[in-house]
User: Fold these one by one.
Assistant:
Number 1:
Amino acid sequence: MSVAREEMGMAQAAADVIVRRAEDRYQAHQQEIYRTTDRTLAGLMIGEWVFAVILSLTISPWSWEGKARSVHPHVFVALVLGGAITSLPVALALLRPGAPATRHAIAVGQMLWSALLIHLTGGRIETHFHVFGSLAILAFYRDWPVLLTGTVVVAVDHLVRGIAWPESVYGIANPEWWRFLEHAFWVVFCISFLILSCRRSQRDMRVMAERGAELEALSENQWRSSSVLERAANDAGGKG
Amino acid sequence: MPNAGASPWARHSPLLLAAGAAWLLAVSAGFAFLWKYKSTPGAQGDPTPATWPAHTGVARSSSRATLLMFAHPGCTCTRASIAELAWIMNRFHDRLDASVLFWSPRDAPRDWQSGDGLWASAARIPRVSVLRDRDGREASRFGVTTSGAVLLYDSGGRLLFKGGITSARGHEGDSFGRERIASLLTTGAADRADAPVFGCALGAAPAEGLAQAGSTNQTERSEK
């Protein structure tokens, strides 16, 4: 009876070890993804900054008043506001890689980049694709709350501008009441599938971690068994 | 596992919060500046003649409406106005003749008009004449001082609309001006006959030039 209880206890202990190892492997994998994505998006933001400055210098380098020209405000905006948007996310990516605040700051920054690029390109409809591209890139984190942060930034931007300057969002001063819902619908449509994808990825990561931990435990058991047998064989050989 | 605990940012979370708040404040201020710049219209200009002026060198159609756009060849905001003009012409080409008059100072360099590609963009729009407005005499005659300003006259030479056709500086898309012109051309009426103009300032014309009658020689037509 006591032998059976002892064996059950050992099995439970072994299972606990596997669960702990699986959790450790899962956390390590998750951190690796967070840190890699932090670095990728920090690089992307620096690239967007450089792109915005080149864009403003190419598209709108000068502002004119008759024959007198001066540097266009878009150049300063790309340089200063673009730099401001990039600063905190990149600093956090360097100083606190993998931390939750870092990826949420990056999400805010990336969506602000969408807004700035739309302004710098004169509201071109094509630049609005940057919003959806950014949401897809944020899904690299496989952390769905980050997508919600990005969506909140888009919503706040639409809300503030919709109240203060509706023409800039909808092109007309008195948009139909449902226009906000139309914009929101497409963002929600996009992130719904991205959130689904993130959750599936997390589940797959957990399964991978559990299988990895089980294989590790199995491999260790085999090593221990082979060591015991080896020692036994050596002992027997020595006695003979 | 995260090593955030080793970072000074993690040890001093109030510092992180302060940095976050300062960042949001700075970025909000930047966007507020940008919105203010983009939504500030140019000068309204002088009163525009309610009927087609007799001494202008610009041709007017007597069978359909005539639209004039005044443009500074270097004004990047006007790129959006020309895109909107293309939209209007695409939709109303059978009811409208249009001309774009590019402001050209007396001592302009040779590449003045081709500077930012606006001339070529305007010239590519079907049924649009592109003209050189020497010293801005026509702009002064029509009471226009801001690039991107549009005037719409009916076939009888009566002024129907004066204003811009973009919603902000250099911003393409729906706008009051475009909607009003569309309404005037389809129903003959609009809620207002004006709209803010977003663009660079045109140079003032010399006073002595305005007094001259019959300024056909002051406005040069481009080849299409």
Note: The beta strands of chain A are 62-65, 68-71.
Number 2:
Amino acid sequence: MQKLTRGELVRKAEELLDNGEVKHVLGWRAGEFDYDLTPSVFDTKDDIEANFRFDDFCGPNFSKYLVKKTRELEGKILVFLKPCDTYSFNELLTEHRFDREKVYVVGIECSGMADIFKIKEIAGEGISKIEPDGEYLSVASLYDDEPVKIKASDVLEERCINCKSKKHVVYDELLGEEGEEQDSGRFEEVEKLEKMTSEERFGFWKKELSRCIRCNACRDVCPACTCEKCVFDNPDSGTQNKSPATTFEEQNFHIIRAYHVAGRCTDCGECSRVCPQRIPLHLLNRKFIKDIDSFYGDYQAGQEAGQRNPLIDYTQNDIDPSEIFGGAK
Amino acid sequence: MIYSCEISHLDDLFKEISSFEKLYLPVDENESLSSRYEVYSEGKKMSDRLNTVRSPKDFFFPQTENLMAFKTEGKKIDIIDVRQENEDFAVFGVRACDARAFKVLDNVFLKDVPDSYYADRRAHGTIISLACSRPVETCFCHTFDIDPTEPDGDVKSWKTEEKLYLEPVTEKGNKFIEKLLSVSDILKEEGTETPADVAKQKEQTKKIIKKLPLYSLSKEKFGAGKTEEYFNSPEWDKLSESCLGCGTCTFVCPTCQCYDIKDFKTNNGVIRYRCWDSCMYSDFTMMAAGQPRHHQKERFRQRFMHKLVYYPTDYDGLFSCVGCGRCLQKCPIHMNIAKVMKTLTPVSDGGDK
């Protein structure tokens, strides 16, 4: 469960609204259940008191919302960013997607977010209440009198199990403790895929991507996908834009997306979080990240605002294609 | 007449069904911690999960289908009917919400100008519904007067600890049972009275429904002719503020029925296909002058007004939400029809115009 409390976030939001530093607060709005929070703008203390939430279900990364919200809203916006979200924030600044002056960033300590579908696997379907209880989540069901105690660390989202950093790379103010970059096992799954034969690997992806329903949620949530008009929404692009009309088309969409965000993807993991079919899309992006690291030296997108990613930054020491693919220099 | 088979013989029953027609069965899908429909083959086990991610709508109105092909030779154009499916099939384990969804789809695809593609599949497909015994927190079919213990369908079924009970209710359902009886060693006549264990299960399920978090969710303020009550509600702004404009809700919905038609060129002609479309998409109903709904708010409003007002207006008050709860589970930002219904205030009840 989170070390930082809802109360600390609420007090900070109210203080900044009171002293006029910000006009709006971007936060997580309470839902019907204990796990279905919605990203939302809060303008008043009453609304914050009644509906603002902070707990293990605050997965959504707000960075991308700033592109729209800074244009729509008058006055400064307070945004709460978890460490991983701050990388997306910097990357969007690098791409000049919003005005930094219109945002007040409060970095928040994060202990990892819970995956509701993993909770349901353990507690069963039909959840009536989820309450934090020390290192556990107490999960009550419509069917059992006694709540089930689940260790929060057993139901973490994949991206949190493999958390890359507990350090905020940008903030105006920090709540809770600052952490460190993590030695995570996030490339282990990629290594497993690399060890497969190309037939096995193609089989793996064919199977995973065959579940795609082409809802575009991965694209629409992705902080690196902020084109005003996506090529896949362009009827003249020649792609069958709303449906996996052929298996080629369905694979094509994901491969093109992965290529388009290569070098800019911070590995925030939103694509896999929102996929209704739980396709491990982050693995495509991680393969690119791993390759960039090995070809150009360790590089983390979003580490600093304004940095140039190796794929768009030519240096004379750049790796020669022959070193990767063989052949003449 | 109600028929039954012992639970221990369930696999044999599926085998018997698949001996005379293709049987689709919900099976566990571990990769996605959910379930999906698959063609039955020996060894496949029916999933105990409540609902598949993709609804049984897909069998009758698939996400993509080729409608026809055109072949040109000089000035001659041949129009080719590309339909190949003409075999009977059965879909087992359709829950009450999804079973009711066919009433919604039939109104659109079978009335006025029938859609022959959908009609073909409806004629060939038998729906074997399965009563719910373990509704979950996202369920609200009761809001739309659906009784999950008495589902629609060609054949209704109930699964208790001991037995699976089957009751044919339509002509197609009766024919299906006749075919099954002609090959079955295990299906027995049970009588016309509700079996005791089914009655007990129904009672338990109804108790759970009263405990559901959405038990009090009401449709009464919505329905036919209520467009003016909600169209300009200021609440749409807040409700739609973080909608990503993705198509998840639409594509997991058992009643969404919008589609787009396109042609694509092949080496020796053109194939015309259709695919699901989503009113949440920026290019939905794109015309020469652009898309009529300029902002996500208007697209969002369209989806919910269609479910709660426009559809009931067109089809005798029938709502086109069946309370299956898929969108509640799958929306990336957890905004959904239950929240919309709770939030909107009609103008006549003090809501702003």
Note: DSSP finds eleven helices and twelve strands in chain B.
